[in-house]
Design a protein that fits this description.
The protein is an alpha+beta fold. The chain has 4 domains: 138 residues, Rossmann fold, CATH 3.40.50.10140; 79 residues, Immunoglobulin-like; 64 residues, Thrombin, subunit H; 99 residues, Lipocalin. A hairpin with a 5-residue loop joins strand 17 and strand 18. Helix 2 runs parallel beside helix 4. The radius of gyration is 36 Å and the shape is elongated. The N and C termini lie far apart (112 Å). The relative contact order is 0.05.
Length: 427
C-alpha cells in the first residue's frame, strides 16, 4: 500500500499529537503512515524508509528536546530514527511540514548537515486550544496530497442511531470534536448536540479564556431512541475554580482580612478591594492571626480559616489569637494553651496567661508571675511580683521590690532595667 503522508515524531513528547493527526487525516480519507498501523514484516528500517519514499508529504512533529539525540555527538546516528527519516525525506525532496509544539521554540544551531535544511521549511502554527484552525490550515495550505474525494452517501432504509449530548455548564465555551468545532454551550441553559454512534473525543474551551479547557471521551452505543449523555461541566469547572480561589485566599496575608459588622452580624472582607469573602453570620469575629480567626456563633466558639471553614470547635469561655503556633484559652477562670489542632498543650491551671513571644509565655499563679515553654515546662520559678514579655532575649521582672532583667533561663542579667533606672532618676 502506498502512503500519502508520513508522520515522524518522538515517542516521548510527540506521540499524542501524532496519533491525533493520524486519526483525523485517516478519517478524512488520507493514507497515513504511522507506526501503530503495523511495520511487522521484513526489516524494520528498510520498510520505514520505503514508506518515506512512497509519501508525498512528510509531517514532522517537533516537541521540546526533539533534536537532543540528533545533536548529541555520543549518540549513534543509525539509532536516531527521527534523524534517519528526516534525512531521507530531505534527500528525496519530499514536502516537509514541521509542526512545532509548545516548548519547541527554535531549531538548534548545530544540526548535522544531513538534516540542517529542515530549518528552511515552513509549517502551520500549532495551537492546542484552536486546533481546528491549525488542522484546516495544514490540510488546505501545506499538504500537497490532493484532498480525497469522499463517496456520495447512499440512501438507506435503516434508521441511523444518534445520541444527544446535553451540557449543563456555567462556562460559556466552544465544543470541539476531534479538534473541529461543532457548537457552543452557554450558561443558564441546556445545550444539545447530536452525535453519531461511536467514540468521540470532545473539548470544551472557554470563550473568554482558552485556558479554561476540559477534555473527555464519550461513547454513543446502539440505541433505538435518543440517548441523552449529560456532561456536567458545572461541577468540573467549579471544582477547579474553587481550588484556585481557595489557594488565592490562603496566600493572602492575615492583615488583608478585615472583620466588619452589619445588622448585628459579622463577616470578613478584603481590605484592599472590599470584597466579602466570608459571609456575615457570626455574632462576633476577631482578626486573623497565623491563618486563623476566632468567631462566635449561637453561643459556640470556633476558629475558622480563610475560606470560612471551621477548623477548631472550642469549649472555652475565651481565647487569645494564635501566636507562634499556640493560643491561650480560658475556662472557668483558669488559663492554658492549645495548638492548631485544638489539643491542650498546656493544662488549664493558671490564673492568667499572656501570648507566646520568643518561645516563652508569661503566666500567673497564686499571685506570682513566671514563664513557661510551649509544652508547659516552667522555665523560671513563679515568684515575680511583676513581669513583662521577652524582647531580644530578655524580660523585665520585679522581685522583692527590685526591678531587673532575666534571660530565657531565668538568670539575672547585670544590666540595670528601665524601671530601675527611672526609680534612680526620681531619687
Amino acid at each position: 500500500m502506498a502512503y500519502d503522508i508520513f508522520i515522524s515524531y518522538r515517542r516521548a513528547g510527540g506521540y499524542e499529537t501524532a496519533k491525533h493527526l493520524y486519526d483525523l487525516l485517516s478519517r478524512d480519507g488520507y493514507s497515513v503512515s504511522f507506526d501503530i498501523d503495523t511495520l511487522r514484516n521484513g526489516d524494520f528500517d528498510v520498510e520505514l524508509l520505503k514508506r518515506v519514499e512512497e509519501c508525498t508529504d512528510f509531517v514532522l512533529i517537533l516537541n521540546k528536546g526533539a533534536f537532543d539525540r540528533t545533536i548529541d555527538p555520543n549518540f549513534d546516528p543509525q539509532k536516531d530514527w527521527l534523524r534517519q527519516e528526516l534525512a531521507h525525506a530531505l534527500k528525496l525532496g519530499k514536502n516537509i511540514i514541521p509542526i512545532m509544539l509548545n516548548g519547541f521554540t527554535e531549531f538548534p544551531d548545530n544540526l548535522p548537515a544531513d538534516v540542517a535544511r529542515v530549518q528552511k521549511k515552513n509549517g502551520p502554527k500549532y495551537d492546542q486550544y484552536y486546533f481546528d484552525g491549525f488542522y484546516n490550515k495544514l490540510v488546505d495550505v501545506f499538504l500537497e496530497t490532493p484532498k480525497p474525494i469522499k463517496p456520495t452517501a447512499q440512501a438507506t432504509t435503516s434508521k441511523p442511531t444518534m445520541g444527544t449530548l446535553r451540557i449543563d455548564t456555567d462556562l460559556d465555551c466552544r465544543i470541539l470534536r476531534f479538534g473541529k468545532e461543532i457548537g457552543l454551550a452557554q450558561t443558564g441553559e441546556y445545550s444539545e448536540i447530536k452525535l453519531p454512534k461511536g467514540k468521540h473525543k470532545l473539548q470544551f474551551v472557554g470563550l473568554e479564556n482558552s485556558i479554561d479547557c476540559y477534555e473527555c471521551i464519550l461513547s454513543v452505543e446502539d440505541v433505538e431512541y435518543e440517548d441523552y449523555i449529560e456532561v456536567k461541566l458545572l461541577d468540573k469547572y467549579n471544582t477547579r475554580r474553587k481550588a484556585e480561589r481557595e489557594n488565592y485566599l490562603f496566600g493572602l496575608p492575615d492583615e488583608e482580612f478585615k472583620s466588619f459588622e452589619e445588622n448585628g452580624k459579622y463577616g470578613y472582607k478584603l481590605k484592599s478591594t472590599g470584597e466579602i469573602v466570608i459571609p456575615m453570620k457570626y455574632d462576633s469575629a476577631r482578626d486573623f492571626s497565623e491563618g486563623l480567626a476566632f468567631v462566635r456563633l449561637n453561643s459556640k466558639n470556633y476558629f475558622i480559616d480563610k475560606i470560612g471553614k471551621e477548623v477548631i470547635s472550642l469549649k472555652y469561655d475565651d481565647v487569645y489569637l494564635f501566636c507562634e503556633g499556640v493560643a491561650g484559652v480560658r475556662l472557668n477562670g483558669k488559663y492554658g494553651f492549645i495548638d492548631k489542632t485544638g489539643t491542650e498543650v498546656v493544662p488549664l491551671k493558671y490564673d492568667d496567661a499572656d501570648y507566646f513571644v520568643e518561645g516563652l509565655a508569661k503566666v500567673k499563679y497564686n499571685g506570682k508571675y513566671g514563664y513557661i515553654d510551649k509544652i508547659g515546662n516552667e522555665i523560671t520559678p513563679l515568684e515575680y511580683e511583676k513581669a513583662f514579655l521577652f524582647r531580644d532575649g530578655k524580660a523585665e521582672v520585679k522581685l522583692n521590690g527590685e526591678w531587673f532583667y532575666i534571660d530565657k533561663n531565668g538568670n539575672r542579667i547585670e544590666e540595670k532595667s528601665c524601671r530601675a533606672r527611672h526609680s534612680t532618676e526620681r531619687m
